[in-house]
Amino acid sequence: MEASPRRVTTPYEGTGVRPWDDGAPVPTPLALHRTPVRPQWADYNGHMSESCYLLVFGDNSDAFFRYLGVGEEYRAAGHSLYTVETHLRNLREAVVGDPLVVTLRLLDHDAKRLHVFHEMRNETEDTVLATAEQMLLHVDVAAGRATALPDELLRRLDAVRAAHSALPAPEAAGRPMGIRRSRTN
Questions:
Q1: Fewer CB in a 10 Å sphere around the end CB: N or C, the chain?
Q2: What is the 3-state secondary structure (H, E, C) of 33-99?
């Protein structure tokens, strides 16, 4: 008998969604995901491997989806959110056991897309370790195409965006990557 293939899972799978409370204030930013750096995330330099930074940011996105009301039932009904672009910045090393807290800010959204900004910190030292800026797309999985978010989710996103718009824009958001050269070179 052949073993079933393994797949990547998040710590939130099977946990359902958080009930949305229209009267509750939206935290600015949202701090929905905490985790220690796990031994299997360490690379040959003894630091958290670069791919694991993205893994942690993905877990943070999943926590955000559940905050909005997107969980297993929503996906079983044929819709999901896909990441279509990510810009990672690794600023400091993390080592096994470091306590991570990851925040998320909703920078913008429209009927089909979400523009989010994650910040990963060492919770004990309160130092920024990494950031990730992402564009997410709402999809109809069966049709294989982008589709508008339902009105209920758009209403919730409006509330999150309104709360998060009071924060100053992250300095790193929207920054292009490249080698800066002086005019004399």
A1: N
A2: EEEECCHHHECCCCCECHHHHHHHHHHHHHHHHHHHCCCHHHHHCCEEEEEEEEEEEECCCCCCCCE
pLDDT band at 182 (very low <50, low <70, confident <90, very high): confident
Both structure tokens of 16: 């359902």
The Cα–Cα gap between 54 and 36 comes to: 15
The residue assigned the tokens 């080592």 is 95
**What architecture is the 30-164 domain classified under in CATH?**
Roll (3.10)
pTM of the model: 0.92
Q: How far apart are CA 38 and CA 138, in angstroms?
A: 31
Q: Delimit the domains of the chain by residue range.
A: 30-164
86: pLDDT strictly greater than 90 = yes
Distance CA 43, CA 163 (A): 38
